[in-house]
Amino acid sequence: MKNPVYLIIIAFIAVSLTILGILYKLASPDLISAILALIIVGYTAFMFLFLKRNPKTLRISLLGFPNSGKTVFLTVLFDQINSRRLNGIFFSPWGRETNEKYQEDLLTIKNGAWLQCTSADSVFPYLIKASEKGILGRRYKIEVADYAGEYTKEFDIRSEKWLHRTEYFNYVTQSDAVFLSIDCSLLKTAKHQNKDIIEMQTMENAFIVALQMLIEEKRVKVGKKLKTPLAIVFMKYDLILEKPENLELYVSRLTDFCKKRCKNFQIFAVSSVGSIKKDGSPPKEIKPIGIIQPLIWTFKRLKS
Ligand SMILES: Nc1nc2c(ncn2[C@@H]2O[C@H](COP(=O)(O)OP(=O)(O)OP(=O)(O)O)[C@@H](O)[C@H]2O)c(=O)[nH]1
Ligand SMILES: [Mg+2]
Question: What's the pLDDT score for residue 1?
């Protein structure tokens, strides 16, 4: 029992029961009832403060092939949610490491350069603090780890890493919500270029396998749907002139699977930076499109 709060609760109950035992012998029933009421009030107030102080942890896994835009997405997302009240919830990045990491990366992008691809041995856990309004409001700690896109190979049947049950596998199958990141630049060329058509199919297959594993791990019964919120996030939406509602047609096998097997499923079109420069570098001024919506939608479902 590592948490001292539990020890305090047990000690509190033990002392209360001892006092009650003594009083039972010495005092009148009215006095005992009054003391019992006081103990219950004290215990409730303590539990209330305990729940408020200890945030509930929610884990969102962000899956996406290399170069699909995950790290840029997290960087700009953290800048956008910083100290903002959205739908009655106060969001902010949590802790020094998270703040330093996203601010450093944001500066790189603002200075006109993209980020280096995430290396396979450097997983970074981005943390968000979310606090509900009001005296009964709870606090949440939301974790989104940024793994290198290379890891998605664990869900690619043609890869030698197929179903290697590493920590990434656990990260995906034990998460409370899932974001699937799809690169719109592939959609743009997929109609014409064989290489991109193959990459799209590989990606769809890998995502379907990952979802099957999640469904298995969450022990979803036959005929029932997965409750875990699932957001398909089309990244780099600035590159494509499609209506958001048409995007799912590019990955219809994946979206058909999600409609059939997932209860909470939504598609989002996101551009982390807005229109980029002609030479492919980040814009002078970052103007994200739809970047906070996946988080707000997911958080709402996780709370309910
Ligand atoms: N047009 C456009 N391009 C973007 C955007 N975000 C990222 N990119 C491009 O996508 C590239 C990859 O972005 P990252 O965020 O580093 O990709 P990643 O998914 O983290 O990749 P790995 O770390 O290799 O898994 C960037 O270098 C940019 O060229 C965006 O909002 N719009
Ligand atoms: Mg990355």
Answer: 47
- 129-132 long-range contacts (CB < 8 A, ≥24 apart) are 129/55, 129/91, 129/92, 129/93, 129/94, 130/89, 130/90, 130/91, 130/299, 131/89, 131/90, 132/88, 132/89, 132/90
Is residue 110 domain-shared with residue 17, that is, in the same domain?
Answer: no
Verify that 249 and 100 share a domain, yes or no. yes
Q: Give tens-digit pLDDT for 68-117.
A: 999 999 999 999 999 889 888 999 999 999 999 999 999 999 999 999 99
Same domain for 74 and 26?
A: no
Ligand 1 close to Cβ of residue 289 (< 6 A):
no
Minimum CA distance residue for ligand 1 atom 28: 114
113 lines ligand 1 (CB under 6 A): no
Ramachandran region, residue 88 (left: φ > 0; alpha: ψ -120 to 50; beta: rest) = left
Q: Whose CA is nearest to atom 27 of ligand 1?
A: 114
Domain that holds residue 36: 4-52
Question: What is the predicted pLDDT for the residue at 232?
Answer: 97
**What CATH number is associated with residue 293?**
3.40.50.300
Domain boundary among the residues 20, 35, 52 is at 52
Contact 164, 185 (CB under 8 A): no
pTM of the model: 0.85
Ligand nearest to the CA of 74: 1
**Domain count of the chain?**
2
Report the residue among 62, 67, 109, 183 best suited for mutation to probe ligand 1: largest number of ligand atoms under 8 A from its CB: 67
